[in-house]
C-alpha cells in the first residue's frame, strides 16, 4: 500500500472512500452532492482507539493502565496519523473548498489525521474489522516496539517541560470555539504562553483539542 491507488483497491465500495476524503468545506460549496467525512471520522476514531488498545493490552500483559494509556497516546496522535496520510498521498486526493486548499489544507497535519480516521471508519463499514486491523498492522502497529523504548509523556507534558526549561510560565489552554450538538461536540483550543498563542487544535472534547494544540506547538518549536 504505497499510494492512494493501492488504498483505493481495498474498497469494494469506492463511494465510501470518496466520502472519507470529503472535507466539510467542500460540502459547503457543493451542497446536496454527498455528506462530509465527519461521521466516518467519528466512527474511525472509536475503532482506532479500540484496536490500538487491544493490541497494546495483549502485547504488554504486565504493564499497568497508566503505561498503556501513555503508549496509546504516543501512537494515536496527529503526527503519526498525518504521517500515514502523507505516505499514502491522501492530501492530493482530498475534496476541499477553494479557500481551504489555498490555506494549505492538503498539507494540514490535523486535517490529514482526521481524514485517516475517516478512512478507517469507511474501511470498517466496507470490509470489516479484520481489514482495518491489517491496515493498522502495516501502518501503525509496526511503531509500537520503538515507541515503548522511549519516554511516553504526552504532548502537553512535553510542551510544558520545553516551555518551563526556557524560564517561561506553564502553557495555558483556552477554548476559542465550541460547536455541534451535545452528542457530537467539536472544540478548538489555543495553547497560550505569556499571552501569545503558539498553536491551536481541534478535537471532539477539550482534552483531545488540548493535546492536538500541544502537538502543533511542539512541531513549530522543535
Characterize this entry briefly:
The chain is mainly alpha-helical and 222 residues long. It is built from twelve helices and three strands; from the N terminus they run αααααααααααβββα.
Quickly give the structural class. mainly alpha
Secondary-structure element sequence? HHHHHHHHHHHEEEH
- The CATH topology of the largest domain is Ribonuclease iii, N-terminal Endonuclease Domain, Chain A
Number of strands: 3
Principal-axes geometry comes out as globular
- Can you summarize the main beta sheet? 3 strands, antiparallel
Give the terminus-to-terminus CA distance: 30 Å
Determine the fraction of residues in helical runs and give it as a percent range.
55-70%
Q: What's the CATH H-level homologous superfamily of the largest domain?
A: Ribonuclease III domain
CATH class of the largest domain: Mainly Alpha
Task: State the low-pLDDT regions, or none.
Answer: none
**Mean pLDDT figure:** 91
Strand proportion: 5-15%
Named at the architecture level, the CATH assignment of the largest domain is Orthogonal Bundle
How many H/I helices? 12
The largest beta-sheet arranges its strands as: 1-2-3
Computed over alpha carbons, the radius of gyration is: 18 Å
User: How many discrete structural domains?
Assistant: 2
Strands, helices and their partners?
Layout: H1 4-8, H2 14-20, H3 24-29, H4 38-59, H5 65-75, H6 78-87, H7 98-102, H8 109-127, H9 129-139, H10 144-148, H11 155-165, E1 172-179, E2 186-193, E3 196-203, H12 206-221
Antiparallel strand pairs: 1-2, 2-3
Amino acid at each position: 500500500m504505497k499510494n492512494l491507488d493501492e488504498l483505493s483497491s481495498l474498497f469494494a465500495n469506492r463511494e465510501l472512500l470518496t466520502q472519507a476524503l470529503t472535507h466539510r468545506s467542500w460540502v459547503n460549496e457543493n451542497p446536496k452532492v454527498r455528506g462530509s467525512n465527519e461521521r466516518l471520522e467519528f466512527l474511525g476514531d472509536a475503532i482506532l482507539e479500540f484496536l490500538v488498545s487491544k493490541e497494546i493490552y495483549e502485547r504488554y500483559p504486565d504493564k499497568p493502565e497508566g503505561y498503556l494509556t501513555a503508549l496509546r497516546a504516543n501512537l494515536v496522535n496527529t503526527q503519526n496519523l498525518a504521517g500515514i496520510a502523507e505516505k499514502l498521498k491522501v492530501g492530493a486526493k482530498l475534496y476541499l473548498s477553494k479557500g481551504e486548499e489555498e490555506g494549505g489544507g492538503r498539507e494540514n497535519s490535523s486535517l490529514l489525521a482526521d481524514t485517516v480516521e475517516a478512512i478507517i471508519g469507511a474501511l470498517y463499514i466496507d470490509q470489516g474489522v479484520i481489514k482495518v486491523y491489517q491496515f493498522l498492522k502495516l501502518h501503525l502497529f509496526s511503531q509500537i516496539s520503538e515507541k515503548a523504548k522511549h519516554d511516553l509523556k504526552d504532548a502537553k507534558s512535553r510542551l510544558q517541560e520545553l516551555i518551563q526549561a526556557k524560564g517561561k510560565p506553564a502553557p495555558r489552554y483556552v477554548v476559542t470555539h465550541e460547536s455541534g450538538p451535545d452528542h457530537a461536540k467539536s472544540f478548538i483550543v489555543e495553547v497560550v504562553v505569556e499571552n501569545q498563542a503558539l498553536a491551536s487544535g481541534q478535537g471532539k472534547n477539550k482534552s483531545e483539542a488540548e493535546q492536538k494544540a500541544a502537538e502543533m506547538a511542539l512541531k513549530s518549536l522543535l
